[in-house]
Each structure stands twice: as C-alpha cells, then as structure tokens.
Amino acid sequence: MASSDKCPAPTPAKGAEAAPPGQPMTMGQHVVDKGASMLQALTPVKQISQHVCTFALYSHDMCRQIETHHYVSRLNQDFLQCPVYDSDDSNARLIGIEYIISDRLFEALPQEEQKLWHSHAYEIKSGLWVNPRIPEMIGKPELENLAKTYGKFWCTWQVDRGDRLPLGAPALMMSPQGVNLGKIDPELVKKRDDNYSISTEAIMESRVEIEEPEWINPQADYWKQHAKGFAIDIEKTEMKLRAPFP
Amino acid sequence: MYHPQVPGEPTQTTTSLVETATGAIQSFRPIKQIHQHLCAFHFYGYDMTRQVEAHHFCAHQNEEMRQCLIYDTPEADAKLIGLEYIISENLFLTLPDEEKPLWHSHLYEVKSGVLFMPRVPGPIERQDLDKVCKTYGKTIHFWQVDKGDNLPLGLPQLMMTLTRDGQLYDELARDVEKRFGVSFEKERAKRADMEGPTHGIHPLANGGGKGLITKLRELHCNRTDPSFASSQL
C-alpha cells in the first residue's frame, strides 16, 4: 500500500515549490490561535532547550542526504527527544522525530532493536553537528557526552524528493559516517556553513581533543558492517475490533 | 493510563547549565509557531483495542495544514510519542489514492466531544473545532507507552481515530473528563450543528475500512559510491 522507499504517484501533492499547498492563514485563525496560546500552558513544548543543525541520510538510499534541524528536550541524563524540521524558519516543515540515548541505555537494547539506531561520534567530531549561534566554548562541555550517544530517527515527510505533503510510510534515517556512503556531500555542508557563517572544517579542528568513544556497537549504523538498509511498508490487515469500523 | 518511567540518571548540573544557555540564546522559530493544545484519542491501525490518550501541540503551516507534536501527557516530563499532520478536505482530495487510506477523518471525534482544547472556553474552542471537523489527519506514533515500553522501541505505528460510538473505552473517557473538568456529553450537544467534509467522509480514508500495519524490510545497499570517492569530510 505504501513503502518508505517507493516514490508516490505524481499529483498536485508533489511539485517544485517549497511551501505546502493551501490558503494563507486567515485573521480569524490567528485570533483563535493567539487566544488559545494565552490560555494554554503548552508545557511539554516549553521544555525544548536546544537547536541542533546536522545532516542525515535515508537508510534505504544513502545517496539522499538532508540538512536537519533538531529541537531538543531532555528527559534525564540519558535520554533526549527531538522534533526534526527541514529548516530553522518559522515556516519550517516538521519532517520527523529523533530520539537520542546514552551508550548505557543502548547496550541494554535487544539486538534487533539496535539495528534501527545510529551512532553520533563521527557527526560530532567532524563538526557536522552544530548548535547554531552558540559559541563553541559554551557547547563543548556536553559534546563529549553526546559523542557517546545513539539516535533513532524516523522521517515522515520526504521533502527532498519534492513531496509537497507528507506522503508514504515513515523512513528510517542514518547518521553521517567517515567512510563510504556515510560521507556528506561537501556542497550540502557548504550551503549550511554559508547560511550560519561558520566553517565545519574549523569546528572539526577545534573538537580534536574530544574523546572518541572507546567502542561503537556494531549493530548500530547497520549498513556499515552488513551492507543493508531498511524500508518500512504499510500493509492491509484485519483490524482487531471492539466495535464496528469505520 | 499507565505512564512507564524512562530509564536514566537525573540530569547533571553541568548538562542543564549548557541547556539553560542554549535555551536563552538560540531562536526556536519552528517551535514558537506551536499555538494550540488539543487532547484526543488514537488507536493502533491494526488494533482498536489498544487506545492511547494523545496530547497534540499544533502549529499552522497555512490555513489548510497543521503539524502537531504528540505527547502522552501535557506535563513537563511528557514523552514525545508521535506526530500528526492535519489537512483540509481540499488538500486531502489531491492525495494519490494509495495515500488516502493512511489518513483518518476527524468528524466523529469533534462532534462527539471527545476531541477538545484543554482550558479554552467553549465558544473559542468551537470556532476552531468547526474547521477541524472537516479535516483529515495522518498520525504516526513511535513510542508504544500503552504496552509499557519505557523507550521508543520497534517500528513506527500508523494510528487511526474513533469513527463511531462504542469504540472508546469508558474508563479512558471518564478519566480524561475528570482530569480536565470536561463533559463529552455536554460538548456533543453544543456541537450538534457542526458539519463534516463537504463531500462526506471519503471512502478511502480511515484505512479504507481495513486495518493497516507497518512492516520492516531489509534491502541490500551498496556501501560505496564512486561519485563520493574524492570527498574529504
């Protein structure tokens, strides 16, 4: 019915323009939104405390690479959760969610689960992972901890393939690595660097003393050791019911 | 509802200091667009008996499209369990036919009163819900808290929503009514005049009436690509 690695049929939902189709917001909607946001606490969203800009690759086609914007909130020392957007603008599209866990939590996962996760050490040491507008000095103390974490990132809106609405099944994403297909296209990095007036190469040099994790679990970054990617299919099935449907 | 505890050590002071700094200095423009909290229920696309209370935090992309973060509670330690996209009927009709079953209608949830905006007075709430009534949603959950998972394990789950009376567990309904001080019955009466999609609920929506389940497929991937052999990074 739908697969993360199959391209959906062309329709008005696919097209060259970036913005999703739809009429601009009416004044009435703005007023309702404003009213609601004054009365509602929106507490979980207020816990978001960090913006990270980095890159990711589709696990079923690692030649497709995207710049990502993670808005991170922390539940405890070992666990972070991030909605992921395609830009840092107010009209950014929500393209997925990434979860980040410490190596301690990762090692306790079943092997079958570990296959869906990726490591962060290379991404951080290479300077690809940055906190925009934050001086390196401020962010550095945490980078050594983050370099040891693992992430699980599902992408629900494949904007790079031209989808104007979120189509198809969620896709599993992988992280940049220093070898083979894990290398990020320098053009993509340059575009990001120009946007923030930074140099990924200079950042990499400044991160030289950050310790490499002693060991990265070989079940993570599954493609590296096993030359396998993953796709998700959505299939019809009998629904278990407790009342008629629909 | 059961809320499993996420494993892990309490946040260290050094860590939270860095995050206080980033929180103060950086701009969070996409997050600042989030203006609305909606509470509703989802069930798994293949299993109506597994139902989840879902707190949506929504932002408008434009008048016809919203994108929502879904948490298991509205508290500070809430788990980010999924997301939902909400589109107008017009946009829904432009979707390819294979895509339509992945989207669900909102008509029943809104008219029955079970979908609501905590703390927002009825008249304001109803202005917006009048629109939501006509929309379609695509919901994916990544964290099966109802199973007791204390981490987001397994595959993404396509979720569906209530489409008629008799589906929602009474205990879930009563618990939410009590905690948020609302009455679904009273709201239902006030929403009697709301109308759904102009063309009626599309027959392909809501799984086309079937269950939908996600499966993982391994595929071979070439680890090397000659066009990147010379890149430095």
Automatic annotation (TrEMBL), chain A:
PANTHER family to which the protein is assigned, alphabetical: OIL BODY-ASSOCIATED PROTEIN 2A, PTHR31360
Annotated region described as Disordered, given as residue ranges: 1-26
Annotated family: Belongs to the OBAP family.
Protein name: DUF1264 domain-containing protein
Recorded superkingdom: Eukaryota
Transmembrane regions: none
TrEMBL record, chain B:
GO cellular component terms, semicolon-separated: lipid droplet
GO BP annotations listed: lipid storage
Pfam families per the UniProt record, alphabetical: DUF1264
Cross-referenced InterPro entries: OBAP-like
Family, as annotated: Belongs to the OBAP family.
PANTHER family named in the record: OIL BODY-ASSOCIATED PROTEIN 1B (PTHR31360:SF0), PTHR31360
UniProt name for this protein: Oil body-associated protein 1A
Organism taxonomic ancestry: Eukaryota, Viridiplantae, Streptophyta, Embryophyta, Tracheophyta
Gene: LOC107942717
